[in-house]
Automatic annotation (TrEMBL), chain A:
<dbReference type="Pfam" id="PF02458">
    <property type="entry name" value="Transferase"/>
</dbReference>
<dbReference type="InterPro" id="IPR023213">
    <property type="entry name" value="CAT-like_dom_sf"/>
</dbReference>
<comment type="similarity">
    <text>Belongs to the plant acyltransferase family.</text>
</comment>
<dbReference type="InterPro" id="IPR050317">
    <property type="entry name" value="Plant_Fungal_Acyltransferase"/>
</dbReference>
<protein>
    <recommendedName>
        <fullName>Protein ECERIFERUM 26-like</fullName>
    </recommendedName>
</protein>
<dbReference type="GO" id="GO:0016747">
    <property type="term" value="F:acyltransferase activity, transferring groups other than amino-acyl groups"/>
</dbReference>
UniProtKB/TrEMBL annotation, chain B:
<feature type="active site">
    <location>
        <position position="420"/>
    </location>
</feature>
<keyword id="KW-1133">Transmembrane helix</keyword>
<dbReference type="Pfam" id="PF08392">
    <property type="entry name" value="FAE1_CUT1_RppA"/>
</dbReference>
<dbReference type="GO" id="GO:0016020">
    <property type="term" value="C:membrane"/>
</dbReference>
<feature type="active site">
    <location>
        <position position="299"/>
    </location>
</feature>
<keyword id="KW-0808">Transferase</keyword>
<dbReference type="InterPro" id="IPR012392">
    <property type="entry name" value="3-ktacl-CoA_syn"/>
</dbReference>
<dbReference type="InterPro" id="IPR016039">
    <property type="entry name" value="Thiolase-like"/>
</dbReference>
<keyword id="KW-0012">Acyltransferase</keyword>
Length: 435, 492
């Protein structure tokens, strides 16, 4: 919840819709894959901050107009969900549109970023969910907020049932191309893409749910799961130098990749502060290189694997934990798809936060969205609708942070139960000098 | 089998009758001339010369009779009304970014009318049966939730439509702005100060002695009223050309209240506009597309019910909107009948007039129980442009005038692609026919428009030159998809 004095920071809210410029046609339907349906209770909230140079002279109309051409390439994101006779959700591509929110803020971009309060991000991006009426719930919300300095923020609120963060990022980057009149000529033919069933599962494993997902109580047409405790987001900026130091501290040399190092640090720290139980199993999500087709959106190209620790993580040596993460991750996508398929796509699951989840967004091209050739000054992403175990997102840094050599820092965003945040922060500071 | 051969026989009988009556003069004259020719040929050349010299042509008589002939011919030609030519016209094509799919409109209505789901459901049902497609357009102010009309937004829409169609038209016809002598702009609901015609004069720097008129409040038939005004002015001013611009600004039209009779506007009216260039110059004759043959205006305002059937008013909550009466179709039918009674004798061939007269005598004088004879207007016109007021209007007129599906195709497809664009819809329909390559030289077009008041106005144009494939126009990118079949009830 945002405090009352912060409620008025963003004002003059106007709602409208933007859809594809071309008629998609009647009776066009997009069927989500099993993997898509496994992710349906999650939502991505991304905010892109642009300086005044990047958006000079951009009126609301000039921002909206290229969207009509852009959305021709992604017409199914403008549709609305229905349920088939079996209860399985599908998207009716009726060109209803994405929702656009226009807003104003009396702070400058710098003042806003200075506040370093991740919860304020909620004011710059819609916290929509799909439901309670499926046929009237937009899947994508875009919020354009104008700041006092002339800068602008773009808030992308994205239903994870459409695709993962990498695809969402590609989706919004293409809007940047549309603004610069550089869209590809013809939209990709969606009929050729298929939802792949990755690594079909063993028969013996089919009966039980995989470790990476958690079956939740039926949510009906209100696609959000309730948390038992309030979750709070907070971020760390790990510089390139810090990262090298941490890598050395963990494994004595730079061999362990940065993501696994950060996972080790946070797994151990959380294990130490977690009052309820020590997380033995974690879920790790990362991009599967080479399996994405340009112009398509997918949930199936994000590897979801679990790592199980046979030993006590909080007492183990960091390099053992790191080795576990690097070598013993089990890809569970096939099992997830089988679990969804078993119930005909009708059951409700969560993936992020079912266990402590680490999401590697290093390869997402967050800074690929350019306006007038300028990259955003800052990008932040959160995931909503996560489970109680918490989520750690590792994202690429901003353009200012690239190191002299090819090494770069990282932005780590943690979404964790509110009552344990202080302890976690002090543990991280104490043990790893992360503040 | 018997009925088929009977209907074929009837058809040929009808054709024979029509041919006979319509060419009765020819049928009489030819035998007479033939007789005369045979008589002359049977005489020898000497006898012809004798007859010729016996006529005693006197120089004075000759001069006198020639002068008389010349005098009467001059009086005849001088008193003949000037021919009015339609040089060309342009229709507004809204950009794709103004598109309002049905699903979007319904969703917006739900969000703007949370307290009243019944009125939203009512509008959804209207949309399903409206005959409008998913490509119709509204101004951006109407795409906000709730819509944000303002005077400024109305002006912006007006500038977009008016300047766009006028630019198009001036380019197509190669007309210079200094050559425009008469300017008539019609827009029913929006009438700011300075007027829309002043807006046009300002933008295009028209001459200071231009005769400009701004017609507001005259409803969907205002385009033909403007054409009528232009025609009268062109009779008075020789060697002139008139620019007529017809539009309806949609920005302020959204009705946010709960009266069922007043929400129809939200469902049917869409963005559109047209600019027409008329001329009475002889030089424009060869390049013009059409010539105006007749224009008949009928006003039923004297009847109270007709007067109130399209009525702008405030509802019980004080929200302003336009109410459409349940008796609209009935009143439209009556107005059409009046209009046909005047225009029929001007355009129908003798065969139809005779049949109509015959039936009328039988009904009124002999008091026989005959059904009123509906003249076959397909004999008088090749093309029909019925104002795309709504599916009901087109259905009603198709029935009343006994038109085929092809005759009303232009109207139905215009309603589907562009919605009810008010006064400019007859021009989109004309353009549809041209885009389909159906407009040939000599074809006669009947434009019928209805409007608040209640008015029924109709114009008859004759095509001056065959119009081959168009290279511009609002139908250019979609004519290949038309005609489409429009289901009775859309699945929304």
């Amino acid at each position: 919840m945002v405090s009352s004095d912060h409620q008025n920071l963003v004002y003059d809210i106007k709602l409208s819709s933007v859809g594809p410029g071309h008629v998609t046609g009647s009776n066009v339907v997009h069927e989500p894959s099993n993997m898509d349906l496994a992710m349906k209770l999650h939502y991505l909230r991304g905010v892109y901050f642009f300086s005044s140079e990047a958006v000079q002279g951009l009126t609301v109309y000039r921002i909206k107009e290229p969207m009509f051409t852009w959305l021709n390439h992604y017409y199914w994101t403008c549709g609305r969900f229905r349920r088939s006779n079996s209860g399985r959700p599908l998207i009716k591509c009726n060109d209803c549109g994405v929702r656009i929110i226009e807003a104003k803020c009396d702070k400058t971009i710098d003042e806003w970023l200075e506040m370093k309060d991740s919860s304020l991000t909620k004011l710059l991006v819609s916290n929509h969910i799909i439901g309670p009426e499926l046929p009237f719930s937009p899947l994508v919300f875009l919020q354009v907020t104008s700041f006092k300095c002339g800068g602008m923020s773009l808030g992308l609120s994205w239903a994870h049932v459409l695709a993962d963060a990498f695809s969402a990022s590609d989706f919004i980057n293409m809007w940047g191309q549309a603004m610069a009149n550089q869209l590809p000529q013809h939209p990709v033919d969606l009929s050729k893409s298929s939802s792949m069933l990755v690594k079909p599962a063993n028969r013996s494993q089919l009966a039980t749910d995989p470790l990476s997902i958690k079956r939740v109580d039926p949510v009906g047409d209100n696609w959000i799961t309730a948390n038992n405790c309030k979750m709070e987001p907070f971020s760390f900026h790990i510089t390139a130098t810090q990262l090298t130091q941490l890598q050395t501290k963990i494994s004595g040399h730079k061999a362990t990749p940065p993501f696994e190092c950060l996972c080790t640090i946070f797994w151990q720290s959380i294990a130490r502060v977690c009052s309820r139980h020590e997380p033995e199993i974690v879920t790790v999500c990362k991009n599967e290189r080479g399996s994405r087709r340009t112009g398509t959106l997918s949930n199936s190209a994000q590897i979801i694997s679990t790592v199980k620790a046979d030993f006590s993580v909080k007492e183990a040596k960091p390099k053992d934990v790191a080795a576990l993460l690097v070598e013993h991750a089990v890809d569970e996508r096939g099992l997830i798809e089988a679990a969804v398929e078993r119930d005909g796509g009708v059951s409700d699951f969560i993936v992020y936060g079912a266990n402590l989840t680490f999401v590697n967004l290093e390869e997402a091209s967050f800074y690929g969205l350019e306006l007038k050739g300028q990259k955003p000054v800052h990008v932040s992403y959160l995931i909503d609708g996560i489970g109680d175990e918490g989520v750690v997102l590792v994202a690429p840094p901003g353009p200012k942070d690239s190191g002299k050599d090819s090494s770069e820092g990282r932005i780590v965003t943690v979404i964790f139960p509110e009552d344990q945040v202080m302890e976690l922060k002090s543990e991280l500071k104490r043990e790893w000098s992360i503040a | 089998m018997a009925s088929l051969s009977n209907s074929v026989k009837l058809k040929y009988f009808k054709l024979g009758y029509q041919y006979l009556v319509n060419h009765i003069l020819t049928f009489f004259l030819i035998p007479i001339l033939m007789g005369f020719l045979i008589k002359i040929l049977s005489l020898g050349s000497d006898q012809i010369f004798e007859i010729w010299s016996s006529l005693h042509f006197d120089l004075l008589q000759f001069l006198g009779s020639s002068l008389m002939i010349i005098f009467f011919a001059t009086v005849y030609f001088m008193s003949k009304p000037r021919s009015i030519y339609l040089v060309d016209y342009a229709c507004f094509k809204p950009p794709a970014s103004y598109r309002v799919p049905h699903s979007t409109l319904v969703e917006h209505l739900r969000l703007s009318n949370k307290d009243n789901p019944e009125i939203v459901e009512f509008q959804r049902r209207i949309l399903q049966r409206s005959g409008l497609g998913d490509e119709t357009c509204l101004a951006p102010a109407n795409l906000y939730i709730p819509p944000t009309p303002s005077l400024e937004a109305s002006r912006v829409e007006a500038e977009l439509i008016l300047f766009s169609v006028i630019d198009d038209l001036l380019k197509k016809t190669g007309t210079k702005t200094k050559d425009i002598d008469i300017l008539i702009v019609n827009c029913s609901i929006v009438s700011p100060t300075p007027s829309l015609s002043a807006m046009v004069i300002n933008k295009y720097k028209l001459r200071s002695n231009i005769k400009s008129f701004n017609l507001s409040g005259m409803g969907c038939s205002a385009s033909l009223i403007s054409i009528d005004l232009a025609r009268d002015l062109l009779q008075v001013h020789p060697n002139s050309c008139a620019l007529v611009v017809s539009t309806e600004i949609t920005t302020p039209n959204y009705y946010s209240g709960n009266e069922r009779s007043m929400v129809l506007i939200n469902c049917l009216f869409r963005m559109g506009g047209a600019a027409i260039l008329l001329s009475n110059r002889k030089a424009d004759r060869s390049r013009s597309k059409y010539q105006l043959l007749h224009l008949v205006r009928t006003h039923k305002g004297a009847d109270d019910e007709a007067y109130r059937c399209i009525h702008e008013q405030e509802d019980t909550q004080g929200i302003q909107g336009v109410s459409l009466s349940k008796d609209l179709m009935l009143i439209a039918g009556e107005a059409l009948k009046s209009n046909i009674t005047t225009i029929g004798p001007l355009v129908l061939p003798a065969s139809e007039k005779l049949l109509f007269l015959f039936t009328l005598i039988g009904q009124k004088i002999l008091k026989l129980k005959w059904k009123p004879y509906i003249p076959d207007f397909k004999q008088a016109f090749e093309h029909f442009c019925i104002h795309a007021g709504g599916r009901g209007v087109i259905d009603e007129l198709q029935k009343k005038l006994q038109l085929s599906a092809k005759d009303v195709e232009a109207s139905r497809m215009t309603l589907h692609r562009f919605g009810n664009t008010s006064s400019s819809s007859i021009w989109y329909e004309m353009n549809y026919i041209e885009s389909k390559g159906r407009m040939k030289k000599g074809d006669r077009v009947w434009q019928i428009a209805f409007g608040s008041g209640f008015k029924c106005n109709s114009a008859v144009w004759k095509c001056n030159r065959t119009i081959t494939t168009l290279t511009d126009g609002p139908w250019l990118d979609c004519i290949g998809r038309y005609p489409v079949s429009i289901s009775q009830v859309l699945d929304l």
